[in-house]
Structures are given as C-alpha cells and as structure tokens.
Amino acid sequence: MTDARSATPFDFNGRRVVVAGGSRGIGRSIALAFAQAGATVSICARGVEALEQTRNDIVAFGAVAHVQTCDLADGASIERYIADAAAALGGIDVLVNNASGYGFGDDDESWLAGFNVDLMAAVRASRFALPHLEASTHACILHTSSIAAFHPRVNGAGYAAIKAALSQYTTSQALALAAKRIRVNAIAPGSIEFFDGLWDRRRRDEPQLYRATLAKIPFGRFGTPESIAHAALFLASPWAEWITGQTLCVDGGQGLSG
Questions:
Q1: pTM of the full predicted structure?
Q2: How many CB atoms lie within 10 A of CB 188?
Q3: φ and ψ at 175, to 5 degrees?
Q4: CA nearest to 44, candidates 72, 21, 74
Q5: Strand segments (E) across the chain
Q6: C-alpha–C-alpha distance, residues 30 and 227, integer Å
Q7: In the beta sheet, which residues pair with residue 96?
Q8: Which domains does the chain have, with CATH numbers?
Q9: Which residues, including other chains, have CB under 8 Å from residue 161's CB and lie 6 or more apart?
C-alpha cells in the first residue's frame, strides 16, 4: 500500500503548523499539504462542520490534528486559539495567516471586515504566536495576500488596499524579526476556484465576469488551492531558508495583464 505522504517532496516531520482560517479553500489545502508532509497541524475557523471534516482529512494522513472554533475578527478569540494550539501541538514552528473578511464593498462594514480579518488577525496571531516561534529553530510566518494588492481596482478597492497593507506589513515584520531568525513571507494568489468558493459562485451567478477574468489569465485556467499550498510548503521549507520579506505571486501570469 502506498504511503499517503509519498506524493510530497517536502519533509515536515516534527514541525508544528498553525493555520488560522484553515477549514475551506486555500487554508484547507495548506493544512492538508503540511499534514501530508508529516507536520502536526492546528486549524481554526468559525464553522464547526467544515473544521471537523478537515480534521478527518488531516488525520487520514496519519497526522496529529487540533481544531478549534475562532472568530478571527476578535482579538481575545485569537489569543485563546493560539494558546490552545501551541499547547496541543507542543509549540509552533509555522504560523499561516489565511483568513479573509472578503470586504469587496465600499461601505464601512466591508472596510472593517477587511481590516479586522485580513490585516489585524494576522497582526494579532503573529503577536500571540511570537513567544512560541522564538523557541523554534525553524520559525516561519506566512500571510495570504492577493494580486489585488499590486493593481488599482474599480471594484473592491478596500479589499485591495487591505491586502496591500498586509504585503507591506510582511516586509516590516520580516525586518523586525530577522534578528530572531524568524522568516516572514506572503503569498499573493490570483483567482482561485474551488467548490462553493468565490469564483465557483461567480461562475454560476456572474458568468460574464467569470469569463472576462478567465480571459485575462495567460495559462487559460483559474488556479487551484493546491497551487497555493505548494508555494506555502516551499516558503516554509529549508529550501527557502534565505527568503524573507517577500510576497510571492502565484497567479498563472494573471497579474501580467494588469
């Protein structure tokens, strides 16, 4: 029988990985990829059902899994989660900040959703995880930004602005933590399609926008969550040991079209 971990070229045995926003889409794929590579994994999200399903999928790789509900817009909830995750895993080597409030509107609610979830959740989780990361010899922080951070937008200006702030925070955080040998990088996905995700819904509800966006991707298809997970594995691995303060675009060339 083939070992479920045999398909990955990375070895994260003994590493402890926390994925904030890890029950669906990109976060789920990142959590599963680390589990497949041998890591122990903790994930959080608001929805219990999706958390439990992802827990089962992590355990199927033979990995230790910790799951916990958490409102990533709330600092106290993040503090509890990080403490519980570190206790369950015995520490933290890799922190992945993946959650998004999807604040695409121009009203205050949309801007605040982006600020609190996309940006401040990353700031807060990093702050609470720092003592555990300082104790690790393989410490790494990864943020999920977006290619929206690099281009002006007619729609979703708030989302783009907050993601740009997250990419900027990545550089400042990387500089601040370099002396502690904690690497900090971000991934900027292009348009990613998965079941019941943003682009799957737009395919059904806004087919004209879906087709127009697809036409701008030189590789001729939407990305998959697995593509982002593979980038996360690389950036957290020893192969990226001298990479910090960077935002890696993973977009099939979508950003080349502006």
A1: 0.94
A2: 24
A3: -65, -45
A4: 21
A5: 16-20, 40-45, 65-69, 94-97, 140-144, 183-189, 247-250
A6: 9
A7: 19, 142
A8: 16-190+224-249 (3.40.50.720)
A9: 114
Cβ atoms of 235 and 142 closer than 8 Å: yes
Output the CA–CA distances (angstroms, integers) from residue 171 to 39, 98, 101, 187, 240, in the order listed: 26, 17, 22, 12, 16
Residues labelled catalytic = 145-146, 159, 163
Half-sphere exposure of 46 (CA within 13 A, CB side): 8
Both structure tokens of 124: 């807060």
Please list, in sequence order, all residues whose beta carbon lies within 8 angstroms of the beta carbon of residue 60, skipping any fewer than 6 positions away: 4
Q: What is the pLDDT along the chain (258 residues), one digit of tens a residue?
A: 234 455 788 999 999 999 999 999 999 999 999 999 999 999 999 999 999 999 999 999 999 999 999 999 999 999 999 999 999 999 999 999 999 999 899 999 999 999 999 999 999 999 999 999 999 999 999 999 999 999 888 889 999 999 999 999 999 999 999 999 999 999 999 999 988 777 788 889 889 999 999 999 999 999 999 999 999 999 999 999 999 999 999 999 999 977
